[in-house]
Amino acid sequence: MSFFLRLICLFLTSAFFYGQECTEFTFPNNGADNIEVNTTLTWTNVLGYNGYILSIGTTPQGTDILDRKPIGTNPFYTPPLGLPDNITMYATLSLVPYDGPPISCDELVFTTVEITTPPTCSILITPDNNAGSVTIITDIEWEYVPTATGYYLSIGTTPNGNEIVNNLDIKNELSYDPPEDLPQNSNIYVKIEPYNDIGIATSCIEEIFTTSFAVYVCDPYISEATGELIYRAPIINLPNIVGICSDELPYTISSNDNADGFRWFLTNSGSEETLLSETQSVAISTPGKYRFEAYNKITTDAGDIECVSSKLIDVVASEEATITSINITNTAMGKTININATGGGQYEYSLDNRDGPYQDSPIFTEILSGDHIAFVRDKNGCGITQRTVDRDISQKDFPSFFTPNGDGINDHWQYIPPIENFEAVIEVIHIFNQYGSLIQQINPNRMGWDGTFNNRQMPQSDYWYKASFLNQKPIMGHFTLKR
């Protein structure tokens, strides 16, 4: 077989095995200790598949935490109820082809941190604290608390009351469906106390909401004249999160919603609220949690009432991002570029164009070789950060000739390390003669080839090399030995 045919076979074999690689976990590292119980598992994204199946257990190949859950195409997953503490965990990913059975990949093993303190308190999600005109058939939902393994729930119609639910152990769930309707037109007091093996959260604040009037006065209804659905309470269109630049405070938030009246509250102090404004706008002086109410006045036989819509709004301070690193993975279909950025903002990402288009994911796939620039833009307009993406090692990083004549100048042929900080790592370099025979294997971190084979000087001629990498495709080329 000719030398060129051998080269082609080497390339095809490399491409075939490269395309068959499974995904690998990128966090935690295999064998890692002291991993937080609310950690997010991440892995390298693999193209050409319909998604992933994830299992998590406390035994090898176990599924007692998560049993073969299809999780779509995102290369990350956060267990919604956290993980048990101080125990060895086993996570297994499977690739889901568009046809055929799932393909199992290597198992990840790690150990969670030991919890030594009780959990902190939770807050209501549904209904919001201080919400009004809540339907009497509402479910009660609350936020997950890291390290919590269960929750005690009390519900009453008076402060610290528990006549509806008395310190019920909900176990490790984040919602409760009352078996009976809640009292109508009443204040409902809710206390949630997370617990774990160490103890129970202390000083948790009681939260409150108000149920609607009898016969659901404020509920939507269908107009007999037009057949349209009519809402008595206003529809709120403000987002759940409002980002502002740190240097823009104080900042004015305005609502364009149609309503008879408005109220803005500061809710950072728990169940206690501070009324800030009774207009459509409010001046925000600090980031934090705020509640916006919009209401319409309705006349009933029992008197005038307010049909209220309420929304809890997080005001967060944004800032320009810092790009900490850029990871490059070479695949059979091109580069995968992962931009790692930190900062106190909400960010989106673009490659090679400051004006976009931008995407929420920091991962770009099937990118052609060449010079690239990464851009990270704060979604709240607080600035754009850019950084050059390190290029790959290429044939220009290998000498085109050398002169092993013993004069101390250019006597060895070797890879020339570039000035830039490269992601690529050379494992070994093989040198062949013009007939395809291997005559030397050199370490890229040592002196290089001196132009001999079995202590004999090789003749002046062209020679071929193949540089093999840990994390990119091999590079092949030729150079000249001059005497």
What's the short story on this structure?
The chain is mainly β and about 475 residues long. The protein is about 5% helix and about 40% strand.
Description of the structure:
By secondary structure, the protein is mainly beta. It is elongated, with a radius of gyration of 32 Å. The relative contact order is 0.09. The longest helix has 17 residues, at about 5-20. The chain folds into 5 domains: about 25-110, Immunoglobulin-like; about 125-210, Immunoglobulin-like (Sandwich); about 215-320, Sandwich (Immunoglobulin-like), CATH 2.60.40; about 320-390, Immunoglobulin-like, CATH 2.60.40; about 395-480, Immunoglobulin-like (Sandwich), CATH 2.60.40. It has one helix spanning about 5-20; strands spanning about 25, 40-45, 50-55, 65-70, 75, 90-95, 105-110, 125, 140, 150-155, 165-170, 175, 185-195, 205-210, 220, 230, 240-245, 250-255, 260-265, 275, 280-285, 290-300, 305-320, 320-330, 335-340, 345-350, 365, 370-380, 385-390, 400, 425-430, 440, 450-455, 455, 460-470, 475-480. The chain has 1 helix and 36 strands. Mean pLDDT is about 85; it is low at about 1-20. The strands form 11 sheets. The protein has a 5-stranded mixed sheet, with no helix packed on it.
Map the helices and strands:
Blueprint: H1 3-19, E1 25-27, E2 41-43, E3 52-57, E4 66-70, E5 76-77, E6 88-95, E7 103-111, E8 124-126, E9 140-142, E10 150-156, E11 165-169, E12 175-176, E13 187-195, E14 207-210, E15 221-222, E16 229-230, E17 241-245, E18 251-254, E19 261-266, E20 274-277, E21 281-284, E22 288-300, E23 303-318, E24 322-331, E25 334-342, E26 347-351, E27 363-367, E28 372-378, E29 384-389, E30 401-402, E31 426-432, E32 438-442, E33 452-453, E34 456-457, E35 461-469, E36 475-481
Parallel strand pairs: 17-23, 30-36
Antiparallel strand pairs: 1-2, 2-5, 3-4, 3-6, 6-7, 8-9, 9-12, 10-11, 10-13, 13-14, 15-16, 18-21, 19-20, 19-22, 22-23, 24-25, 25-27, 26-28, 28-29, 31-32, 31-35, 33-34, 35-36
Organism: Maribacter aquivivus
Pfam family, one: CHU_C
Signal peptide: 1-19
